[in-house]
Amino acid sequence: MSEIVITLDQLRRMIGIKVRYEGSLWQVIEVLEDGPSLVLESIRAPKVIQADKFGDGHRRTAEYLTIPVLTADRSELHPQFLALDLEED
What values do phi and psi take at 39, rounded to 5? Predict the structure, then answer.
């Protein structure tokens, strides 16, 4: 099997793009080099309660999601990445 080559620069160009994932609207806000993965921030969903290091909820924040770009063997695009639908403004 051959590895899929996708550069971090290509992924970083996705920052700011709005996508639909599992019926909800998200925005790409960051690229994690390890993986690589995309970090998505919920746009229209209500804020969720964020827990501190002790598990106590104390503030509301946007919901975040990390989507892997490649499968573990790096031979294919990950199904979660393929499930992202570009959203038109």
Answer: -105, 125
Other Cβ atoms closer than 10 A to 28? 20
* The token pair that represents 78 in the structure block: 């990950």
Which residues fall within 8 angstroms of residue 29, CB to CB, at 6 or more apart?
Answer: 15, 16, 39, 40, 41, 64
pLDDT given at position 55:
75
pLDDT tens string 16-74? 999 999 999 999 999 999 889 999 999 976 666 667 778 777 767 778 999 999 998 88
- The pairs formed by 40-48 with CB atoms below 8 angstroms and a separation of 24 or more are 40/64, 40/65, 40/66, 40/67, 43/18
Distance of CA 11 to the CA centre of its chain: 11
Rg (CA), the chain: 15
